[in-house]
Amino acid sequence: MSTATKTDVREKLLETAARLFYSQGYKDTGINQIIDEASVCKASFYNHFKTKEDLLIAYLERSHDQSMAALRQRLSQVSSPREQLRELFRCQAEKLEKSGFRGCPFMNTLAEVPGAEDKVRQVIGWHMSGQRQILEEIVSRVSRERGLGAQSSRLADDLEVVMTGGLMAARAQGNVAMLRHAQSMAERMLGLDES
Amino acid sequence: MSTATKTDVREKLLETAARLFYSQGYKDTGINQIIDEASVCKASFYNHFKTKEDLLIAYLERSHDQSMAALRQRLSQVSSPREQLRELFRCQAEKLEKSGFRGCPFMNTLAEVPGAEDKVRQVIGWHMSGQRQILEEIVSRVSRERGLGAQSSRLADDLEVVMTGGLMAARAQGNVAMLRHAQSMAERMLGLDES
DNA sequence: GTAAGTATAAACAGACCAGTCTGTCTGTCA
DNA sequence: TGACAGACAGACTGGTCTGTTTATACTTAC
């Protein structure tokens, strides 16, 4: 029988917290449930995280890193910007369905923790910028290919609105129909539907 | 000195709960704070509402009724569908700003109460349908005026995506820029930008 | 081999929560 | 006048929460 190492414990806590915070919400998940399910004792928990909110921030940072990495990895496997856009929507739809339509962890946190500390808001901001960056890259690739020129800044805004709207509408309705609709809107907007 | 009447008490509780649930969130608002701020004793509270969740449902129903009535009232004061669309976006922007970008009470509740009871989900569904209905009415008025014909079902979906996206993006960013952008997208989509 | 660091287990503190209960006071209506 | 409804006041229960503390075991680096 051996004792868990330091990184083991931290990773187990983060993994468990990610699962529970996302599926049950932050407020509805107690420290005790987290340490029980992670098989870590309470004192060890407080050895790694000063407070529960500390854990929330670490969870958000981790979610951000992981989701951006996963998304970029998926996008790098297709070549044309048209396919990238489709892949982007496919990823969102998959995540939404797999999560039982629980939606975006960051938006959920924003709703759940109104008086969120600056640090929490900051991480949420990072995530939004990261997502936006990906949209801008796709738009700029389309633009380079088809010479959309000065429109491309507006198009990135368009795309952000449509992506966000499709995601939130689908989440509220509990099915991906609106996300698919948003995808076809996005393709129309970028002139990728007729090529 | 006279005792508060039955409807007084209920109304005071609902008003206070609406304010606190919306600004602080459901979980972060305790019964004790509600009755303190409403100046109502606890037994009276439980005379009107069986549980805290009962109060949540009553709050959502009331929010739905009030917001739909207010919206319809505002929309009825302008004549052209073009102006109605503008008014719709203006209302959303005003509400968002006035609330300190706290967003939609229904989406927030959805995020905050993952294991929401059927009744809660039901009221949220009513609200979504109500909003959707208004969009459809505007689209159909535009369609009648300009003969968009068979496209109008798709246009209602488009409009829903854009409205939702603008609202959520603005909420996340903490300013109404994306909502204004969504408005111009909507006008373009319905051909109302050049007339 | 020993000291430092981190793990484990479990009790504990103190705040807060939803909801119950006992009892009193006031107004209305028959 | 008396019965009833619903207001008020507030103590109380049983439970949950975050976070602390104490005591003991294991691992690793010096």
Quick structural gist:
Two copies of one chain form a homodimer. Chain A is mainly alpha-helical.
Can you put this structure into words, describing what you see?
- Two copies of one chain form a homodimer.
- The longest helix of chain A has 29 residues, at 118-146.
- The mean pLDDT of chain A is 90.
- The first copy, chain A, is mostly helical and 195 residues long.
- Chain A folds into two domains: 1-49, Arc Repressor Mutant, subunit A; 52-189, Tetracycline Repressor, domain 2 (Orthogonal Bundle).
- Chain A starts with 5 loop residues before the first helix and ends in a 6-residue tail after the last helix.
- Chain A has nine helices and no strands.
- Chains A and B meet through helix 6, helix 8 and helix 9 of A and helix 6, helix 8 and helix 9 of B.
- Chain A binds a DNA duplex (30 and 30 nucleotides) through residues 1-6, 9, 30-32, 40-47, 51-52.
